[in-house]
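Entry 14. Ran structure prediction on the chain below.
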Amino acid sequence: MINLSKTSNPVLTEKRFGRESIASSEAMTVNGTINKTALMLLLVVAAAMFTWNKFFGVTNPEAASSAVMPWVFAGGIGGFITALVTIFRPKSSGISAPIYAVFEGLLLGGLSAVFESMYSGIVVRAVALTLAVFAIMLFVYRSGIIKVNRKFMLGVVAATGGIALVYFVSFIAGMFGANLSFLHGSGTFSIGFSLVVVGVAALNLVLDFSFIDRASQSGAPKYMEWYGAFGLMVTLVWLYLEILRLLAKLAGRD
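Output, structure tokens:
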């Protein structure tokens, strides 16, 4: 039997959905969650276009970076804070989730512009690949090719936790001046690691789809559609950034 309290995405847990399903007169639906996810994507794109235009509206590369970095930092910090608010207060997700999308858009737009200035065309490829991976994983889930059972869930949880640990150790080591080119450079090991991370992020989408389905079936309240859309957006943002990093590493080998 699947233990539904476990998932590598800390946002989408059956424990959370079960707790929030108490005393609800209007239930969450999959279609409602899809609509909220689409709206959040539109907000991400709109905010990303703002910081993108900020960057490319300045001809001098150094000045462009200076112009966009405050917005990138604001997006990163604001996104982190609103994510915490959403996680610990799901009832506020109707407000906090759209705000999170705007902050993430500011972050992604600025970072994407910086990468685009270094490698022309990389952002279009990253967006296309992210959408393709999303579509493929949705098909894989809906067709039942991947069975979301206990072993699958535990495997994805372990892999995601391992990646988080590697990134944490890498961050701490970098603060002390350690050379981590083997992990962040364009070498074979680094590219292989990025491929693994992209694969794990893609598998997290399957878990997200499964938990949204189960939450809808369990009668979670209507506002949890925003919460489910938020959880899915967290995974999509991670997937896009990892694909962008992978493409940058591949371009760096040329």
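Residues 14-252 form one domain. Will compare against last week's run tomorrow.
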